[in-house]
Amino acid sequence: MQLMPLGTLGAVETNGAVTFGLWLPWVSATDGNRVNVKIIHEADQFLQGVCFGAGSRP
Question: Which domain of life is it from (predicted)?
Answer without folding.
Answer: Bacteria
